[in-house]
Amino acid sequence: AEGEAGNKKITTPEDLEMLRMTGERIPCVGYGYDVHKYADGNEAGQPARLMRLGGVPIAGSPDVLAHSDGDVLLHALMDALLGCIGAGDIGTFFPDSDPAFDNVNSAVLLDTVLEHVQKANVHITHVDLTVIAQIPKVGPHREMIRRNVARLLGLDMGAVNVKATTEEGLGFTGERLGIKAVAVVTGLRGNR
Ligand code: ZN
Hints:
alpha+beta, 4-stranded mixed beta sheet, 6 helices
């Protein structure tokens, strides 16, 4: 079938440059992944934190070991945002050796990341977040997490998806030793 005249095929760097010159926005995708270990009461290393997912406290769940507040979901989200703008990862921005980030609220770190996203002229259009854990059950907190992440990002709730899965008792999440999260962010990059 004939394509629409407005639909330009992007196959060469020159095509991309042409899109930039005409002010069209180019889709971009970022992926993030994070893991935190659960406290078992005899750690010498990082401190134990009350669990937060997407900025929402999760009562009755295991404590999480972390230098920061240990919000695995916001950490994965921030890495995905940085991935979207080609800016490395949160370890570079907020090293866990820096006392400034001791028990730091991840929502505050997210604000800094969002400033970089804005400077990169990227408009975030959608985020898809997955929590992977045997415990706690995420379902009862899902909508609250979704609402809070949407608020933090300034997006409609419809542009934020939160889901959860177990790994069927397998691996470190199955053994209830820790929690992981993955995030995919899609955005549109405008002219620089
Ligand atoms: Zn983390």
